[in-house]
Amino acid sequence: MQKAIWKYVVMLCLLAGSTVTTAAAEQVLLESKQVKITSMDFEAEIERIPAEYRAEVLTNKVRIKKLLENLLVYKTMADQARKAGVDSEPLMKKRMELAADKLLSQTQMDRTIASLKLPNFAARARELYKINTEQYTLPAKVHASHILVDSKNRTDEEALKRIQEVRAKALEGKPFDVLAQEYSDDSSAKENKGDLGFFEAGRMVKPFSDAAFAMSVPGKISEPVKTNFGYHIILLHEKQAKKLRPFDEVKAEIVKGLNDKYIADYRQELVGKITSDPSLKLNEEAVDHYYSNLEAKAAAEQKK
User: How many separate domains does the chain show?
Assistant: First the structure.
């Protein structure tokens, strides 16, 4: 049984990126004395998983086993419910109909959208690129390291004196990263040796950010900079000016946005045609029967 299941699953893996369909005869994958889980049951359940995640499920034996176990539980409990006549209850029958309607509705919408022919937005994408250059411009960045001497356990004068002493050692040629590990009160300095990587303006607290972006020569060390954390000295590694990304680099991104909007608008148009159908008739009196006016009920209770 297990070999047959895995052989079948391997075939499904090959179809994982698309809608799962097979002309093979329906097979029993798992069974108990009450129910059988067939290949069609399995395929129907797999269809509920977004296409981009199906391969991830179908190449994981643990997840496949769990999926089969879930189907076993669902079908067993459903079988028990049918034997108890639950499926014959009027409200339950209507709920089952609505569940089917929702599934069919979503499938119809998905298939309609899938068959939609999208316009060629290449020219429009270039127009938007030219109009919104700032949107496609990479901000200026700096790559810097720092050493912090905090003033939590020192007076302001003591903190300033200590950072000046550390700066003097750096100017004398002692490696900045070594000094950061030895003197910095930044808890991350032991790991990153004071290196903050690249960051944009405004990413750090304002006095620090302003000082870092005011520097222009790589390898230079700043004067002490005071922030709410204490005193810092900054070593500039590299400075990158803001840069407009080439159109070819962002074209796919822009086109995708245009496609998504076109599809969303089309979807809304389809829904709008249904909800604005001139043949619609609303039985307001019957609908009002379900309306719960809590304020009116509270007022009525107070009069009692």
Answer: 2
Q: State residue 290's pLDDT score.
A: 84
CATH code of the domain covering residue 212? 3.10.50.40
Beta bridge partners of 239: 142
pLDDT exceeds cutoff 70 at 259: yes
Domain final residue, candidates 206, 221, 241: 241
In a domain, 49, yes or no: yes
Lowest mean pLDDT among 20-34, 116-130, 161-175, 244-258: 20-34
Q: Is the pLDDT of residue 15 over 60?
A: no
| Boundary residue ending a domain (84, 105, 120) | 84
In a domain, 250, yes or no: no
**Quick one: pLDDT at residue 51?**
87
Are 71 and 147 in the same domain?
no
Q: What is the pTM of this model?
A: 0.69
In a domain, 53, yes or no: yes
Note down the domain range covering 163.
140-241
Write out pLDDT tens, residues 164-208. Answer: 999 999 999 999 999 999 999 999 999 999 999 999 999 999 999
Answer yes or no: is 296 within a domain.
Answer: no
C-alpha 87/C-alpha 80 separation (Å) is 10
